[in-house]
Amino acid sequence: MLFASLLLAAEDEASGVDLLIPDLRELAAGVVAFAIVFFFIWKYAIPAFNEMIEGRQKQIQANLQAAEAEKEQAASLKADYESSIAGARAEATKIVEDARQVGESARADIVARAEAEAEDIKSRAGQEISAERERAVGSMRREVAGLSLDVAEKLVGKNLDRKAQQALVDQFIDELGDEG
Description:
mainly alpha; 4 helices; 92% helix
């Protein structure tokens, strides 16, 4: 219908509409040129454009996959890092616990040695006290015996047999020591 109206308009004399509507030969040439351009675009440009778009989609898909792989790798590294930190904390706790146990053991050992030394010192002190007491008792016996003999000589007024009298006084003191 458009074509028929165009033909009728072409046959009429030039009017205002003729200026807007092109000549039929020009229109036919334009349609043929458009068809040729459309054919080349459809045959060559659209496949190239589609190929370019597919390439871009593939590149974007590859980038997304690479990003996902990097994300998974980062998550794996984070998990490894966190497990390393947990292992380090556990090891540090173990080292502190071992050090505490060694310290407790050393403290217990030092306390035991100190107690043993204290007992040894008490024992030696007791032995020294006993020995000193024996020496003091022996010294006092000799002095008491000597004084007793001196008193007896003064009372009797003559010299007595010092050795015999000393043995008699020692025997008496021993008997007193056994009773007390």
